[in-house]
Amino acid sequence: MIRLCGFRISNYHNKVRIALLEKGVPHEEDENVKPSQQDEVLARSPMGKVPYLQVNGTLIRESGVILEYLEDAYPQKPLLPKDPLERARVRELVVFIELHLELVARRMYGSLGGGKPVSDEARQRVEKDLAKGVRALKALVKFEPFIAGKDLTIADCAAFVHLPLVTLVTRNFFGRDFLEDIPQVKPYLKRLGERPAFAKVNEDRKAATAAAKK
To answer: Of 155, 157, 163, 198, which has the fewest Cβ atoms less than 10 A away?
Structure first.
């Protein structure tokens, strides 16, 4: 039995959950595990991060590794191409989306809604780095109709959960959505959101976010 452990506000948890649902992998979910440095969490996730996956008593950590495991263990509905070069291109897209966009935008996330203030220097660095990330993404994407080509892949799972954070941060801090420089992004994300797995995860994320604010 597979058990996904994390929480439904987490982009990385949701990325794995979308893949599980798209692949039709039977699984359970513990949606109440938060990142923590407490011993109980560290015993399961040595960095105290989520999500992690329990597979018949064995633990797998890091969302990218979990996706690779799911692809190896459940190849019937693939989320990676067969061709090695095409597989590499999909993985490349995931790295660009997460490393050069999501993680950069996340530097400002704690300041949304009147949170911890950000220095002008930090703000300028984020603006510069996000502009570079968007430029790089524009050079890589295909939208044919999916982000890496004609088939749904793990890059779409990543794009759906991570790119909205870029929109949120750039609108709030820089006065415009940097992703508007790639006009295909908005209709693409809308199409993804109409798929049952993506819609389900997005609805559950919204519900979890609302509950957390109470």
So the answer is: 198
Segments of the chain assigned E as strands: 2-5, 28-30, 52-55, 58-61
For residue 33, pLDDT beyond 90: yes
Of 128, 92, 110, nearest to 172 by C-alpha is 110
> 84-212: which CATH architecture?
Up-down Bundle (1.20)
Over residues 9-34, mean pLDDT: 97
Amino acid found at 38: Q
Per-residue confidence (pLDDT) for residue 214, from 0 to 100: 81
Write down the CATH superfamily of domain 2-73: Glutaredoxin (3.40.30.10)
Task: Give me the count of residues in the chain.
Answer: 214
Mean pLDDT of 108-120: 82
The domains of the chain are located at 2-73, 84-212
- Taking alpha carbons only, the member of 162, 146, 145 closest to residue 97 is 162
Counting beta carbons within 10 angstroms of the beta carbon of residue 104, is it exposed (0 to 12), middle (13 to 18) or buried (19 or more)? buried
Which residue carries 């692949």 as its tokens?
Answer: 23
